User: Which sequence fits this backbone?
């Protein structure tokens, strides 16, 4: 029972396990729902899917599995049949059809044939009808009518509580936007950054250390001796250097997400900006970048080598901006950018570069290869996978 | 035991179904959705409609799974031992029952399945849900100090809410049913408002809803206003006795809507809407 449905869900990469299938069968056995495909849709979704980002995949799988069984709604079109031109009607009708349904329609002799037969039947028929296999009505196997199970059927007149679902719910695919396969959000980045957690106890002693208290009390022969310990927190120290302005403007949104995620995750986070390539100055306030700068040498002196350094930049520039003195587009630099990058990689133990450019574009820019070399190949794409790999490298 | 919309809570049919399935199959129900779409409300209303007790466990970043089961108050036992109190000989005197313990034993004492709300489970540490796997699956746990076994003879109805701040582990999700509360449509919103403020002037509501949904459509808002914000805002509008015409005029002339503080919770959002309004006026 439902085994095919289960494998259809797996085919659409939904992480369902035997446990969910048994739950669903149990729910059907207990009679949570009965013979109602819409209710079944909601029930199956409640039990099988555990994340709203998977709803869209579920909808697709459901539609695929049930496309032979459910039929379509013609009520609105029919209501207007008498005062609207047929061409328009046909177009409206076709809008509601999926490709498979169109193929099935052909099997019936095409839309024209179906509409014609429908019209004839409507004229022939005078009374309300239910059941049977020819007349338009409910619950039958005729191609026309509602709640029926003819794969080539046309749904007519489902009023009342079902009319909210004129278009099949799972075909609306309302959750398309939530599928995160392509998207990168601060929550997902946070999860990737979480791997860089390193708990340590530092700072003021503010929580009761129970084991130590018991030990000390026992030592004193039962006289209470309360011991305190500092609370555990993430002790990883991170220094982030963002490329800002120019070609980076395209990636500002992703960088914002990364920044906010990093800000929430690390207690010791220092960040500075640079433009295109790292030179002798960095700054923290982009509005006052010319008046308020920090020497890059200060960074090296100020932060210990156990700081993890993350560069964020597209590394897309002229090669001379990295290799030559005076190559910077903004000012005259006495030393080439490569010298500064080397100083950073020499001082800090762990350095990685995150590049928002798509990986497949990298080979086309000489400068990217150049920087990658300077980073000892530790350049990663600014995608979830890339961040995870960078974090692995850093931890 | 069936759950339906109550006097002041409108539940969509899919939500009702999810809740009923969870009640019938005795599984925890995990509820997600935008903040302010009534996740916590659901548990309250569910308890009310089933006429049973609501046991609430609010999770914070420092909450440990053990606290839901029981806590051993070692410090007061140490203190009592110093004072020579008789109670000190029975360790059971220092076991403080947690919310799960209360929920597991409630049905036995009162003959009714209670509703247990585990609120905002995503606020806790990332390992927290894993520590509750067995407890939620078998609805039982062991008290080591007294060598007791606490078993739920009748399982409580468990509602768990999450705001998606942390992803929950797979093993935990497998043990739950899941429902995502969609943002209500304009019609559903009207129903919700009718339920909360039955005597609110019709055209004021219509006008307010229009402003509200326009606002939600504005791109780039950091925090979109949600149902609870709309309800607060309406309450303010009514309290200040602002009529639909004023609201309409404001919207036409540009500028912020009256009492915007109830809808926009972020100064960047406020300045964004101000800018948009200014541009539309020109």
Assistant:
């Amino acid at each position: 029972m439902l085994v095919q449905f289960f494998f259809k869900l797996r085919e659409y990469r939904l992480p369902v396990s035997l446990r969910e299938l048994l739950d669903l069968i149990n729910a059907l056995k207990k009679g949570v729902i009965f013979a109602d495909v819409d209710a079944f849709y909601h029930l199956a979704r409640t039990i099988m899917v555990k994340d709203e980002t998977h709803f869209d995949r579920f909808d697709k799988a459901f539609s695929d599995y049930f496309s032979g069984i459910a039929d379509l709604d013609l009520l609105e079109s029919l209501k207007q049949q008498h005062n609207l031109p047929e061409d328009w009607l046909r177009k409206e009708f076709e809008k509601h059809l999926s490709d498979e349904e169109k193929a099935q329609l052909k099997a019936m002799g095409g839309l024209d044939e179906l509409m014609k037969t429908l019209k004839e039947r409507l004229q022939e028929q005078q009374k309300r009808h239910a059941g049977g296999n020819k007349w338009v009505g409910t619950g039958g196997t005729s191609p026309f009518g509602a709640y029926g199970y003819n794969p080539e059927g046309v749904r007519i007149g489902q009023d009342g509580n079902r009319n909210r679902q004129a278009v099949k719910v799972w075909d609306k695919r309302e959750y398309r936007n939530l599928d995160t396969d392509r998207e990168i959000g601060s929550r997902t980045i946070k999860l990737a950054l979480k791997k860089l957690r390193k708990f340590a106890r530092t700072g003021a002693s503010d929580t009761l250390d129970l084991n130590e208290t018991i030990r000390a009390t026992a030592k004193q022969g039962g006289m209470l001796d309360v011991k305190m310990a500092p609370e555990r927190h993430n002790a990883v120290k991170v220094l982030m250097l963002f490329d800002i302005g120019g070609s980076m403007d395209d990636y500002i949104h992703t960088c914002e997400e990364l920044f906010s995620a990093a800000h929430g995750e690390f207690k010791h986070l220092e960040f500075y900006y640079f433009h295109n390539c790292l030179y002798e100055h960095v700054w923290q306030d982009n509005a006052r970048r010319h008046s308020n700068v920090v020497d890059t040498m200060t960074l090296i002196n100020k932060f210990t080598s156990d700081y993890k350094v993350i560069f964020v930049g597209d590394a897309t520039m002229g090669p001379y901006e990295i290799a030559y003195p005076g190559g910077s587009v903004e000012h005259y630099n006495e030393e080439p950018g490569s010298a500064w990058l080397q100083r950073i990689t020499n001082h800090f133990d762990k350095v990685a570069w995150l590049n928002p450019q798509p990986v497949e574009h990298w080979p086309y820019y000489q400068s990217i290869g150049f920087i990658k070399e300077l980073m000892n190949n530790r350049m990663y794409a600014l995608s979830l996978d890339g961040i995870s790999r960078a974090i692995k490298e850093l931890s | 035991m069936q759950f339906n919309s109550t006097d002041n809570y409108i539940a969509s049919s899919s939500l009702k179904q999810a809740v009923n399935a969870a009640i019938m199959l005795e599984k925890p129900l995990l509820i997600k959705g935008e903040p302010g779409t009534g996740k916590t409300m659901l548990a309250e209303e569910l308890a009310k409609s089933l006429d049973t007790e609501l046991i609430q466990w609010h999770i914070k970043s420092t909450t440990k799974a053990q606290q839901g089961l029981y806590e051993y108050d070692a410090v007061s036992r140490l203190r009592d031992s110093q004072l020579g109190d008789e109670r000190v000989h029975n360790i059971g005197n220092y076991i403080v029952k947690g919310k799960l313990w209360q929920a597991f034993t409630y049905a036995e004492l009162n003959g009714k399945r209670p509703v247990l709300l585990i609120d905002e489970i995503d606020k806790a540490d990332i390992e927290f849900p894993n520590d509750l796997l067995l407890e939620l699956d078998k609805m039982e746990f062991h008290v080591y100090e007294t060598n007791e076994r606490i078993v739920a003879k009748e399982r409580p109805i468990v509602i768990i809410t999450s705001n998606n701040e942390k992803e929950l582990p797979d093993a935990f999700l497998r043990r739950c049913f899941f429902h995502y509360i969609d943002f209500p449509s304009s019609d559903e919103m009207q129903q919700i408002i009718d339920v909360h403020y039955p005597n609110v002037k019709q055209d004021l509501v219509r006008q307010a809803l229009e402003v509200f949904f326009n606002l939600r459509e504005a791109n780039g808002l950091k925090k979109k206003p949600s149902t609870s914000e709309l309800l607060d805002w309406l309450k303010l509008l009514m309290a200040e006795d602002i009529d639909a015409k004023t609201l309409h005029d404001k919207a036409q002339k540009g500028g912020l809507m009256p009492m915007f503080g109830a809808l926009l919770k972020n100064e960047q959002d406020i300045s964004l809407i101000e800018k948009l309004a200014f541009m539309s006026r020109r």
Summary: Residues 199 and 234 of chain A are 5 Å apart (CA to CA). Chain A has 17 helices and 13 strands.
